[in-house]
Specification:
This protein is of the alpha/beta class and 359 residues long. It has a 9-stranded mixed beta sheet with strand order 14-13-12-11-7-10-9-8-15. A 6-stranded parallel beta sheet has the order 3-2-1-4-5-6, with helices on both faces. Strand 11 (257-264) and strand 12 (268-274) form a beta hairpin. The chain is globular. Helix 1 crosses helix 10 and helix 5 (100-113) runs antiparallel to helix 11 (334-353). It has helices at 14-23, 38-46, 55-61, 76-85, 100-113, 127-137, 167-170, 174-177, 180-189, 313-325, 334-353, and strands spanning 4-8, 27-32, 50-52, 66-69, 89-92, 117-119, 144-152, 194-202, 230-237, 242-248, 257-264, 268-274, 285-294, 297-302, 357-358. Bound molecules: nicotinamide-adenine-dinucleotide. Nicotinamide-adenine-dinucleotide is lined by residues 8-13, 32-35, 38, 55, 70-73, 75, 93-94, 120, 122, 217, 313. Nicotinamide-adenine-dinucleotide (NAD) binds at residues 8-13, 32-35, 38, 55, 70-73, 75, 93-94, 120, 122, 217, 313.
Length: 359
């Protein structure tokens, strides 16, 4: 019997979740969206049998094993807890929630229901990330001392006054929206325990339409825009590792850059996506590189990997179904999501207080 899935949210990300669940051997049987007509339109587009305008109704009527949550960030924790309490496995879009305390409540619900709770950290599933993780696991890299995580955009604010730019709905700006590279760096580092976080945030250019990205959601003139445009920070870990981070939607840089660079005791490395000048996935160049010393020489190795326009989103959704089936190890754990959100909370607290935060 294949895993039967209901999705909540029929927006832009549904296409990847649907393709991934099908690739993993699951069946998407229901879709729920509060916006009138949105679930019906998605049901027709993807051939999903059941469409609902209420999550309660979907949970009551549909015979599903699992739920995928693809809605604005504020609703991740309450919906995940509701679905776990209804006895469903949950795959939740990033960020895990608005805060670490919400993730703690999600973990309690997952443990008492004895159901899986996974998150869409899809950048771990990119071919170059999987290749890099294989090199790390095989011992090629040794111990990672330090890493730098970056997702920086020059003109990439996803609209004004919509849910992305309203802190009460999103939890924050690029720190929370572009947390992928912080997660990926931590994943490569072995998800160590953070001890100190020092960070600053900037809201320069928020409100300037010249800094809007080619994606996002429509502006809402009556909406609120109260999140940061950029952040810089430094995290230290109990085992001596260190991570610096830079994230932005709007910052004076040459071009968008999405990368994790690290320095290990046997090799350094870099995983990077450089978007094309049009800022789109189709024209991006992905790289996976290792830096070693061999026979007294500095050698740079480029690992050639398959192209993957979708940044691992399909593979990541497939992994959720395979983890439920017990045929693949889950690509992420709730405890990792909790550590990540503790760092995000501390970035905001440090920026607000001007002090280093000890965790
Ligand atoms: N992993 C990635 O690469 C990636 C990329 C983009 C967005 N995301 C995440 O995906 C999530 C959704 O983003 P999106 O771009 O698809 O948003 P979107 O605004 O395009 O779609 C969200 C949909 O959810 C519906 N909705 C809102 N609240 C709801 C609720 N309480 N119950 C049911 N339906 C509800 C809306 O009507 C809308 O159709 C966000 O958490 C975002 O951070 C992840």
């Amino acid at each position: 019997m294949s895993v039967k899935i209901g999705v909540i949210g029929a927006g832009g990300m549904l296409q990847y979740h649907h393709a991934g669940f099908v690739q993993g051997g699951g069946e998407v049987v229901a879709v729920a969206d509060l916006a009138p007509g949105a679930a019906a339109a998605a049901s027709e587009k993807y051939g999903i049998t059941e469409a609902y305008e209420s999550v309660e109704e979907m949970l009551e009527k549909s015979e599903i094993d699992a739920v995928s949550i693809i809605v604005p960030n504020k609703f991740h924790a309450p919906l995940a807890i509701q679905c776990l309490n209804a006895g469903k496995h949950v795959f939740c879009e990033k960020p895990p929630a608005l805060s670490a305390s919400q993730v703690e409540a999600m973990i309690v619900a997952s443990e008492s229901a004895n159901k899986r709770l996974m998150f869409n950290f899809n950048n771990r599933a990119r071919p170059e990330s999987r290749e890099m993780m294989a090199a790390i696991s095989s011992g090629t890299v040794g111990e990672i001392n330090s890493a730098q995580a970056k997702w920086i955009r020059r003109t990439g604010i996803p609209g004004f006054g919509g849910w992305f730019t309203t802190k009460a709905l999103s939890g924050g700006g690029p720190v929370i929206d572009l947390l992928h590279m912080i997660d990926l760096a931590m994943y490569f580092m072995g998800y160590p325990d953070p001890t100190n976080v020092l960070a600053t945030t900037y809201n320069t250019f928020m409100g300037d339409s010249g800094f809007k990205g080619p994606w996002g959601i429509p502006d809402n003139a009556d909406g609120v825009t109260d999140v940061e445009a950029a952040a810089h920070g430094f995290v230290t870990f109990a085992n001596g590792q260190a991570l610096s981070l830079q994230v932005s939607w709007a910052e004076m840089i040459k071009r968008e850059e999405v990368s994790v660079v690290f320095q290990g005791t046997k090799a350094g490395g870099k995983v990077e996506r450089l978007f094309g000048s049009d800022g789109l996935d189709e024209t991006a160049i992905d790289t996976c590189e290792l830096y070693v010393q061999e026979n007294g020489q500095s050698v740079n190795r480029t690992v050639v990997v398959e192209e993957c326009e979708d940044m691992g989103r399909i593979h990541s959704a497939a992994n959720f179904v395979e983890a439920i089936e017990g045929v693949s190890e889950p690509l992420n754990t709730p405890q990792q999501a909790l550590k990540l959100m503790r760092i995000i909370d501390a970035v905001y607290e440090s920026a607000q207080t001007g002090k280093a935060i000890t965790l």
